[in-house]
Write a structure and sequence with these properties.
Strand order of the largest sheet: 1-5-4-3-2
Number of strands: 5
Radius of gyration: 14 Å
Strand content: 25-35%
Distance between the termini: 20 Å
CATH architecture: 3-Layer(aba) Sandwich
Number of helices: 6
CATH class: Alpha Beta
Structural class: alpha+beta
CATH superfamily: Gcn5-related N-acetyltransferase (GNAT)
Largest sheet: 5 strands, antiparallel
CATH topology: Aminopeptidase
Shape: globular
Helix content: 40-55%
Low-confidence stretches: none
């Protein structure tokens, strides 16, 4: 689980990062990576698909879809958020995040085979981490 202090600005986050992270974030932005908050039924379906692609690919047993649906429906109007990274309109990485007491928790995520095959995974993780600031997540 990743925990991020959301009181920092984007500039403060970038300054605190290693140069390689800053480079990768800017590269992803330049290449057209777009991260959208999609805390909706459509976003949940995309997240769920990518999450189970990941559990299958990595051969581990995550919670079932019903578990994730209950969590999503219970928290979507309060602390739950789904962020999805797109490249050329294709969802390649998704995260189910929880914002509680101004701290953002990252308990669940998934990525597509295309994301792994095309070596985008680290770029998506980094730009998504960068996107998790006050300007990008509604309270």
């Amino acid at each position: 689980m990743c925990i991020r202090d959301r009181q920092k600005t984007e500039d403060q986050l970038l300054e605190a990062m290693k140069p390689k992270w800053r480079y990768n974030i800017r590269l992803a932005q330049k290449k057209g990576v777009e991260v959208k908050e999609m805390t909706s039924d459509e976003g949940f379906e995309i997240f769920s698909d990518l999450y189970f692609q990941t559990t299958n690919r990595q051969s581990y047993h995550g919670h079932d879809k019903n578990y994730h649906k209950v969590i999503f429906e219970t928290l979507q109007r309060s602390i739950g958020h789904i962020l999805i990274a797109f490249y050329e309109g294709i969802p390649l990485s998704a995260y189910h995040l929880f914002l509680f007491n101004n701290v953002l928790y990252y308990p669940y995520g998934g990525s597509s085979e295309m994301c792994i095959r095309d070596r985008f995974r680290s770029l998506f993780k980094k730009i998504t981490a960068f996107t998790m600031t006050n300007d990008h997540i509604r309270d």
